Amino acid sequence: MEPISLEIETWKEFDPPDDVRKMGSRIWDESKVMWEIAAPAIITSVAQFSLGFVTIAFVGHIGEVELAAVSVVQNVLEGFVFGMMLGMGSALETLCGQAVGAEQYDTLGIYLQRSCIVTLVSALLLSPLYIFTSPILKLFQQDKKISELAGKYALWVIPQLFAYALNFPFQKFLQAQSKIWVMSIMSLVVLVLHVFLNWIFVTKLGMGLLGAAVAENISWWLVVLAQIVYVVCGFFPESWTGFSFSAFKSLFSFVKLSLASAFMLCLELWYYTLVILMVGWLKNPEIAVDAISICMNLEIWTLMFTLGFNAAISVRVSNELGANHPKAAKFSVIVCVATSTVFGCIFTAAILATKNVYPSMFSDNKEVIGETSKLGHFLAATIFLNSIQPVLHGVAIGAGWQLSVALINVGCYYLFGLPLGALLGYKLKQGVKGIWLGMLAGCLLQTIILILYVLRANWNREASKAEARLKSYSVSSLPQAEKAQGEMLVEHRSELKNLHRV
């Protein structure tokens, strides 16, 4: 009877259902933490992204030339600047997230100020692009009327450039501390106000493009000022202790990390821009450009959802590495990638099921609808990859791998994807399908490499790197380092006592 009893006790000790329950509980707890960050991040991204859509909707009723001018400024100029500023803000995402994990809250305010200095100087350096928009567009053989009107509009929205420069540092500061719901509410309120401002300035007062520019400037600065007030008015007593000259220290290292972050993100944005330009170089490109533009717009909207998971995993990874919890960081990656992939499968299935229906929502032209439907399978595959790829980028931001990922982007996109697309599209006469297939191949290669990069990562080493990074950027000792030193001292004293007893 004893062997049976022993077998039962052993089975109880290693009870598979109990292990499953524990794993399920861990996944549930991690998912709750992840969604607390992802949900408001999604709302914020969609709300801020929609400011431009509202402007386009009102400007579209003024005239075709006005609509084209604003579209050029938003999609080319502001898209480039927006990507640069968002990318530079990712440096703050890495450092603030790891500082929160290490409970080094007093350095967060210093990091925020350093980031603002870097982004404001960058905005100043980028301002000539706004000033010389018209001659730049004419240089690229764009329509003269559109170029001149776009140049005027670009001058009127220069205040937005400096709003972007402050928005992302404050956004990442709040995000690293999981204080995002307030930011989401601010963005939603401003979005509603933005609609009202456009109605006043553009429709009622008839101010045209100037009215649209004024409305957008006011809206973006309201977002920024609301965030600044929230941060500096006592809601963050530990992480915001006032302005400090320490912000001007270690600026060179901060600039390097900021540029690597911006480079990583901009390589993504430029890739899709170049794909649209390549389609525009085809013979009789009008139908093809309309079709791929519809698909890209749908892709961007689904990407807004994925960016919430990008924000969540960057916070989770940076927090856990900063707290020296490498296993927890790895587990967060698994849960977040799995969750995002599930939503990617849902979006992919929806596109495949409606590939003959959704094009009619955007166009009445039968040729455009037909060409867009043909691209449905390519769009579905791209959306599926985009449910994984941005999450892996979030892991890279949280761990501080921006430069490595930027180099991977160069190889996969510009040395492989675009040449393959050009070969298929132009040489082999596959047209827009060939160009998109090349883009898709580049995305797939990058996703595979990033997955391997994450799987092969030594998370214990990454935690050590996070500690070293915080030491090099910080203005005070790390709590975890002090704790370790204290434990070593106690252990050393204990050993001395034992020696004396002997």
Descriptive overview:
- This protein is an all-alpha fold and 502 residues long.
- The chain has 2 domains: 37-249, no CATH class; 250-474, no CATH class.
- It has 19 helices and no strands.
- The chain has helices at 2-13, 16-59, 64-101, 108-131, 133-139, 144-156, 158-176, 181-204, 208-235, 251-280, 286-322, 326-353, 366-374, 376-385, 389-399, 402-427, 431-455, 459-473, 479-501.
- The longest helix is centred in the first third of the chain and has 44 residues, at 16-59.
- The chain is globular.
Give a topology summary.
Elements: H1 2-13, H2 16-59, H3 64-101, H4 108-131, H5 133-139, H6 144-156, H7 158-176, H8 181-204, H9 208-235, H10 251-280, H11 286-322, H12 326-353, H13 366-374, H14 376-385, H15 389-399, H16 402-427, H17 431-455, H18 459-473, H19 479-501
Please describe the structure with a list of short key phrases separated by commas or semicolons.
mainly alpha, 2 domains, disordered N terminus, disordered C terminus
Number of helices: 19
Order of helices and strands: HHHHHHHHHHHHHHHHHHH
| Terminal Cα span | 49 Å
Q: Regions with pLDDT < 50 over 5+ consecutive residues?
A: 1-14, 476-502
Q: Estimate percent helicity.
A: over 70%
Q: What count of structural domains?
A: 2
Structural class: mainly alpha
Give the overall shape. Answer: globular
> What fraction of residues sit in β-strands?
under 5%
Main sheet specs: none
The number of E-state strands comes to: 0
What's the gyration radius in Å?
A: 26 Å
Question: pLDDT average, as an integer?
Answer: 80
